[in-house]
Design brief:
Strand order of the largest sheet of chain B: 1-2
Largest interface: A-B, 48 and 48 residues
Largest sheet of chain A: none
Distance between the termini of chain A: 42 Å
Order of helices and strands of chain A: HHHH
Number of helices of chain B: 25
Number of strands of chain B: 4
Strand content of chain A: under 5%
Number of helices of chain A: 4
Radius of gyration of chain A: 18 Å
Structural class of chain A: mainly alpha
Oligomer: heterodimer
Strand content of chain B: under 5%
Radius of gyration of chain B: 27 Å
Shape of chain B: globular
C-alpha cells in the first residue's frame, strides 16, 4: 500500500499525505490524554502510573516510528529528481519535491511535539 | 498539461475584443438601484460583509470604551453592575463572533478570487446566504443590549451560572444566535475550501498557490472541526435551559466541566482561526515591500498546517484551575509551548524576507511591524500563562485580559489595518491617505500599548477581570486611569481610519494599477476593477507572475489567455484539479437573486423564535426555510447545460457538467458533512465523558433504550442507505423503474428507521429531565433520526428531479450528493446504535 506516492504524475499525489505527521501527533496526544484522564479518574488524583507507563511507552514508540517512516518517505520524495529549492516553477518535479519537503518538515515538527508530550509524562510519572 | 501553454502570439482583433467585452459586461454587470442587494458576486458580497464586520467592530469598541470609563476611577457609578456584566459579555462575544471570525471570511470572499486569478468562487449564493445570516444574527444579538436583555454571563457562558442563575432570555439569545452565525461561518468555510482546492488558474500547481490560500485553507478546515463542538455544546446547554435536560447539573449526573471542554475545544482553535488568515495578509504584503519573493515558502506552509493541528491540543490550558489531574495540565502545557514553534517559524520567514530584500517604507508595513512586535509580546505572555503554576496566579485577572488582547489585536487588528491600507485601492479603486495612515498608526500603536501594558501589572497586583469596580489603591488607580486614557487614544486612531475610509475621494482620482508594485495575482485587475475581474484567465508559471512572466498584464487584458468571452452571456469560471490545477470543467454560476436573503430570513426565524419560546412560529419558519432552500436548489443547481463541452481557448475544451467527486457540489457536501459529523462526535464525546468519569452512568434505576428498537432502526437505516446507493447505480444505467422503486422504498425505510430510533427510549419511558443518561440517549437518537428525515427529503428530491427531467443518467449530481450524504447517515446510525444499545451492557 502506497500511502505517500513517489512518482510525479498527479493522480498519485495527495494533499492528505502532507498531513500524515501532524495526524499521528494528534493520535498520540489524544490517546495519551484520554488514557491519563481515565486512569486518574479511576485511580485518584494522586495515583502513580506504575504499570501503565508501559502503555504510554508503547504508544509513544509506535507514534515515533510512524512519524519517522513518514519523514523518511517525505525525504525520498524530496530527493527525487533535479529540482532545486524553493520549488517555485510550474513543473511536476517542483511540485513533487515541494510536497515531499512539506511532508518531511511537518513530520519533524510532529516528532518534536510528540517528545514534548513525552516529557510531560516522564516528568510526572503519575497523575499529579 | 504538458507542454506549457503560452499566451496567444497575436491579440484578437479590436472588434472581436470589444464584442467579447460587451458580452462579459452583460454577464457580470451588477444590478442597479434596489436590485443591487440581490447581487451575489463575491466583490459585492465581500464588500458588504467587510463593511458590516467593521460596523460591529465599532459597536464592540464603543462597549470597550464604556467599560474603560467605568474603570477609570475606583467606585465609579457610570454603569450599573448588571449593565457592566452585559457590556463585557457582549463586547467579548461581538469581538469574537461578529468581528474576528467574519473578518477573515469577509476578506477572503472579497479577495480570494483575485488571489487565485478566478472570476468568482464556486458557490456565490452560499456566500450571500452566509452574509445575510450574519447580518440578521448579529443585529439580533447586538440589539438586545439596548433593551437591557443581553447575555451577561461572560463570553464563554459557563454553566451553572448560565444554566441555573440567569432566568432572562440573554443566555438563550447567545446560544441560539451564535449557533446561527456559526452555521453561516461553516457555509463560508465550505466556499473557501472548495475555492482554494478547485478554482485555480491553469498552471497554478499546489507549490505555486499564494500563501494566503494556504492559510485560508487551513483556517477554514479548522472551522469545520472547531465550530461544531460549540454548536453541540450550545444545543445541550439550550436543552437544559429550555426543557431542563440536566447535562450540566451535577445533582442529576451532569457535569458543568463538559461545557468547558466543548467550549474550549472550539475556543482555542478559534484563536488560530482568527490569527492565521491575518498573518496570511502579512505574508502577501511582506514580499511586495521587500521587493523579493518570500523566504521559506515551504516553511510557512509548515507553519500554517502545523499550527492548524497543534492548536487543537491546547484547549485544556483554559481550564488549568478546574481541578483536573496534574498530568492533564502538563500535557496541555507542553502542547501550548510546542505551538510556539510553528508560530515562530513564520515570523522568522517574514523577518528573513525583509532582510534579504530592499525594504520600501509604507503605511501597511508600519502596521505589519507594529503588529508583529505586539503579537510577539502577547506570544511571550502566552508562554507564561501556558505554565500551569503561573496560570494559577494569573487566572481570571487583568493579566489574562492584557495577554489575550495583545495577541488578538497584534495578531489580527494590526494586520487588518495594514491590509486595509494595502488593499483599499483594489477594493474601491481609490487609495487611502498616506498622511492619515501614519497618524492613525501612531495613535493606534501608542494607544494600544498604553491601554494594555498597565493591565499586565494591575492583573499581577490581583485585579480580577469582569468586576465592575475596584477598591481605591494608589497603584490600581493610576494603572486603570492610564489604561482608560490609552483606550481613548486608540479610539482616536480608529476614528482617523474611519474618516479616511469614508471621506469623499472623487477629487483625488483613481489609484494607478498595481500601486505597490506587487508580484502576486490579486494586483492584476485594472483599477477600478471591471465587474468581470480578469479579462482572461491566465496561465501561471510562477508564484509572482506579475514580476516574472513577461507582458503578463497585456496578455491578460487583451484576452490572450483562457475564457476571454461569455458567448452564452452566462457567468462562468474554470474548475481545476486539486494538485496540478488542470482545467476540469467550465462551471456556470448563478447571478443576482433574492433567494439567499429569503432563505436566511427564514433560517434566522428557526433560531430566533425559540429564544422567545415561540415554538409554532419556529415550526412555520423551518418549513418556509426548507421551501426557500429547495427552491434555490431546484432552480439554480445542477442545471443540465445545452451542450456537453465548452471551448475555453488554447485548444482546450472542458465539460460544462460534472458529477460525483469531480464536481464542486460533491466536495461541498463532503466538507459540510465533515462539520456535521464533528458536531455529532462532540455529542458522542459527551456520552463517553459521563461514561468514563462517572461510575453511576448509566444509573441503576433508569432503563436504557433496550436493544430491540435500536437494532430494528439500524437494520432499516442501513437498508435505506443501500437502496440510495442502488438508486444511484440504476439512475446511471437508466433503469428508471428500479430507480424510482429504490427511492420510494429507501425513503419509507428511512422514515421507519427514524421512528424506531425514537421508539427505543420512548417505549422504555426514559425521561430526559430525570437524569443526564436518558437526556444523552435522547439527544443521540433524535440527532440521527433528524438526519434520516433530511435524508428522506433528499431522496424524494432526487426522484422529483428525474421525474421533471432535471436529472438524467448522465447528469446525476443530485443523486451522487444524496448518496454521499447517506454514507454519513449510515455512519451516524451505526455509532448511535452501538453507543446507546451496546455500551450500557459493558458496564
Amino acid at each position: 500500500m502506497d500511502i505517500i506516492p513517489t512518482a510525479v504524475d498527479e493522480p498519485r499525489q495527495s494533499l492528505w499525505a502532507v498531513t500524515a505527521g501532524p495526524a499521528i501527533w494528534a493520535g498520540h496526544f489524544l490517546s495519551t490524554y484520554i488514557a491519563a484522564a481515565v486512569w486518574c479518574g479511576n485511580a485518584g488524583l494522586h495515583a502513580r502510573f506504575g504499570s501503565a507507563t508501559v502503555v504510554f511507552a508503547a504508544v509513544t514508540a509506535l507514534a515515533l516510528a510512524a512519524v519517522a517512516w513518514v519523514a523518511w518517505r517525505g525525504w525520498t520524495i524530496y530527493n527525487h529528481g533535479e529540482a532545486v529549492p524553493s520549488h517555485h516553477k510550474d513543473t511536476p518535479e517542483d511540485r513533487h519535491r515541494f510536497l515531499g519537503l512539506a511532508t518531511l518538515l511537518l513530520a519533524v515538527l510532529s516528532a518534536v511535539s510528540i517528545l514534548y508530550t513525552v516529557v510531560a509524562v516522564a516528568m510526572l510519572r503519575g497523575c499529579s | 498539461m504538458t507542454p506549457d501553454i503560452e499566451p496567444l502570439e497575436q491579440a484578437p482583433p479590436q472588434e472581436v475584443r470589444q464584442a467579447q467585452e460587451a458580452r462579459l459586461h452583460t454577464a457580470w454587470n451588477p444590478p442597479t438601484g434596489w436590485r443591487y442587494f440581490s447581487e451575489v458576486n463575491n466583490s459585492a458580497v465581500g464588500m458588504w460583509y467587510t463593511a458590516l464586520t467593521v460596523a460591529f467592530l465599532v459597536f464592540g469598541g464603543v462597549l470597550a470604551l464604556l467599560m474603560r470609563i467605568q474603570l477609570a476611577v475606583p467606585g465609579n457609578t457610570f454603569l450599573e453592575p448588571d449593565t457592566y456584566n452585559q457590556v463585557f459579555t457582549v463586547h467579548g462575544s461581538v469581538m469574537m463572533f461578529l468581528v474576528a471570525i467574519p473578518l477573515f471570511e469577509a476578506i477572503s470572499i472579497l479577495f480570494l478570487p483575485a488571489f487565485l486569478g478566478t472570476r468568482e468562487l464556486p458557490f456565490p449564493r452560499l456566500s450571500a446566504y452566509g452574509l445575510w445570516a450574519f447580518l440578521i444574527g448579529g443585529v439580533f444579538l447586538c440589539g438586545s443590549i439596548l433593551f437591557g436583555a443581553a447575555p451577561n454571563g461572560g463570553w464563554f457562558m459557563y454553566p451553572p451560572l448560565t444554566s441555573r442563575y440567569e432566568p432572562g432570555i440573554g443566555a438563550d439569545m447567545w446560544l441560539l444566535g451564535f449557533s446561527f452565525i456559526e452555521v453561516a461561518a461553516i457555509a463560508a468555510s465550505v466556499e473557501l475550501i472548495v475555492g482554494v482546492l478547485k478554482s485555480r488558474p491553469v498552471g497554478m500547481r499546489i507549490n505555486l498557490i499564494p500563501l494566503y490560500a494556504w492559510y485560508v485553507l487551513v483556517a477554514a478546515a479548522m472551522v469545520l472541526f472547531a465550530f461544531p463542538s460549540l454548536i453541540a455544546g450550545s444545543l445541550l446547554l439550550e436543552l437544559e435551559r429550555a426543557f431542563d435536560w440536566p447535562f450540566f447539573d451535577p445533582t442529576r449526573g451532569g457535569d458543568p466541566l463538559l461545557w468547558q471542554h466543548l467550549f474550549w475545544l472550539f475556543g482555542h482553535p478559534e484563536v488560530y482561526i482568527i490569527f492565521l488568515p491575518s498573518v496570511a495578509l502579512v505574508a502577501m504584503m511582506v514580499p511586495t515591500f521587500a521587493r523579493t519573493p518570500i523566504v521559506g515558502y515551504e516553511w510557512i506552509v509548515l507553519s500554517a498546517i502545523g499550527t492548524g493541528f497543534l492548536s487543537f491540543g491546547l484547549w485544556v490550558h483554559h481550564m488549568f484551575t478546574t481541578g483536573l489531574p496534574g498530568i492533564s495540565l502538563a500535557l496541555f502545557s507542553a502542547a501550548s509551548m510546542a505551538v510556539a514553534i510553528p508560530t515562530g517559524v513564520q515570523i522568522f520567514c517574514f523577518l528573513g524576507t525583509l532582510l534579504v530584500g530592499r525594504v520600501v517604507r509604507s503605511v501597511p508595513l508600519l502596521f505589519v511591524f507594529g503588529g508583529l512586535a505586539t503579537f510577539v509580546i502577547g506570544g511571550l505572555t502566552g508562554v507564561m500563562v501556558a505554565m500551569a503554576p503561573f496560570d494559577f496566579q494569573a487566572h481570571d485577572t487583568f493579566f489574562v485580559v492584557a495577554h489575550l488582547h495583545t495577541v488578538l489585536i497584534g495578531g489580527t487588528l494590526f494586520p487588518f489595518f495594514a491590509a486595509s491600507y494595502y488593499y483599499f485601492p483594489l477594493a474601491t479603486g481609490y487609495a487611502l491617505s498616506d498622511r492619515l495612515g501614519r497618524i492613525c498608526f501612531w495613535l493606534v500603536f501608542i494607544g494600544f500599548q498604553v491601554t494594555f501594558m498597565p493591565m499586565h501589572v494591575s492583573g499581577l497586583l490581583g485585579m480580577p477581570r469582569r468586576v465592575f469596580t475596584y477598591p481605591s489603591d494608589p497603584n490600581l488607580n493610576l494603572l486603570n486611569l492610564t489604561s482608560t486614557v490609552g483606550a481613548f487614544v486608540l479610539a482616536a486612531g480608529f476614528a482617523v481610519f474611519l474618516w479616511d475610509v469614508l471621506r469623499p475621494k472623487r477629487k483625488q482620482g483613481h489609484s494607478p494599477r498595481n500601486p505597490w508594485g506587487s508580484g502576486t495575482l490579486e494586483w492584476l485587475p485594472e483599477l477600478p476593477a471591471k465587474p468581470w475581474g480578469l479579462r482572461s484567465i491566465p496561465e501561471i508559471d510562477s508564484r509572482y507572475p506579475i514580476w516574472e512572466q513577461e507582458n503578463f498584464e497585456r496578455d491578460v487584458d487583451e484576452g490572450r489567455f483562457f475564457l476571454p468571452d461569455a458567448e452564452e452571456l452566462k457567468r462562468e469560471m474554470l474548475v481545476s484539479s486539486v494538485i496540478d490545477a488542470r482545467p476540469e470543467q467550465c462551471l456556470r454560476i448563478s447571478g443576482p437573486t433574492y433567494v439567499p436573503l429569503v432563505a436566511a430570513i427564514f433560517t434566522g426565524g428557526v433560531f430566533i423564535f425559540p429564544t422567545f419560546k415561540m415554538w409554532a412560529w419556529m415550526a412555520v419558519s423551518a418549513v418556509l426555510a426548507l421551501g426557500a432552500i429547495l427552491y434555490w436548489l431546484w432552480t439554480a443547481t445542477a442545471l443540465i447545460p445545452e451542450k456537453d463541452e465548452k471551448y475555453i481557448g488554447h485548444g482546450v475544451s472542458v465539460p460544462l457538467y460534472r458529477s460525483g467527486p469531480s464536481s464542486v457540489g460533491w466536495w461541498a457536501m463532503l466538507i459540510t458533512m465533515l462539520a456535521d459529523v464533528s458536531a455529532f462526535a462532540a455529542v458522542v464525546f459527551g456520552y463517553f465523558f459521563y461514561w468514563t468519569l462517572r461510575p453511576e452512568f448509566p444509573p441503576g434505576g433508569i432503563a436504557g433504550p433496550g436493544t430491540l428498537w435500536p437494532a430494528v432502526a439500524l437494520a432499516l437505516l442501513l437498508t435505506a442507505w443501500g437502496l440510495t446507493f442502488a438508486a444511484r447505480r440504476w439512475n446511471a444505467t437508466d433503469q428508471a423503474t428500479f430507480f424510482y422503486m429504490a427511492i420510494a422504498a429507501g425513503a419509507a425505510l428511512a422514515l421507519g428507521g427514524a421512528a424506531s430510533l425514537l421508539a427505543g427510549p420512548w417505549t422504555h419511558h426514559m425521561m430526559p429531565s430525570q437524569h443526564v443518561y436518558p437526556a444523552t440517549v435522547w439527544v443521540l437518537v433524535a440527532w440521527t433520526a433528524l438526519h434520516a428525515v433530511v435524508g428522506v427529503v433528499m431522496q424524494l428530491y432526487c426522484g422529483a428531479r428525474r421525474w421533471a427531467g432535471r436529472m438524467s443518467a448522465k447528469h446525476d449530481i443530485d443523486i451522487w450528493n444524496t448518496t454521499l450524504y447517506w454514507h454519513f447517515v449510515a455512519l451516524m446510525a451505526v455509532v448511535t446504535v452501538v453507543v446507546v444499545a451496546v455500551f450500557p451492557r459493558l458496564r
